[in-house]
Amino acid sequence: QVQLVESGGGLVQPGGSLRLSCAASGSIFAIYTMGWYRQAPGTQRELVADITSGGVTNYADSVKGRFTISRDNANNTVSLQMNGLKPDDTAIYYCNAFISTIANDRNYWGKGTPVTVSS
């Protein structure tokens, strides 16, 4: 079984910073793209940022210049440094990874961590 466990969410004032982390564990053969998605109430889940196993990154236009995604391949972790947070960034943030196991290759999701940006 594969698990993705997120940490680091919370309440922050506008302009503040938070760092989200996600650790993958289980019978993992390889991890390809890892990323962060978010879903605000009443909206669809959207991509925030992702990163390939080779380190190529991709960001939503709304977070470019403010968020930075990184990963540690040796420890199967991905992080999201969020600076200059805005109220519009309030959402549940989900870790995602495309993982190869002995059984198959597929997408996995974490349970989510809430981020609230409010004064």
Written description of the protein model:
The protein is mainly β. It is built from no helices and eleven strands. Strands 2, 4, 5, 6, 9, 10 and 11 form a seven-stranded mixed β-sheet that branches. Strands 1-3-8-7 form a four-stranded antiparallel β-sheet, with no helix packed on it. Strand 7 and strand 8 form a beta hairpin. The radius of gyration is 14 Å and the shape is elongated. The protein starts with a strand and ends with a strand. The model has no long low-confidence stretch (mean pLDDT 97).
Short recap of the structure:
The protein has about 120 residues and is mainly β. Helix content is about 0%, strand content about 60%.
Structural class: mainly beta
**Order of secondary-structure elements:** EEEEEEEEEEE
The gyration radius over C-alpha positions equals 14 Å
Approximate helicity band: under 10%
| Biggest sheet architecture | 7 strands, mixed
Low-confidence stretches: none
Write the layout of secondary structure elements.
Layout: E1 2-7, E2 10-12, E3 18-26, E4 30-39, E5 46-51, E6 57-59, E7 67-72, E8 77-82, E9 91-100, E10 105-109, E11 113-117
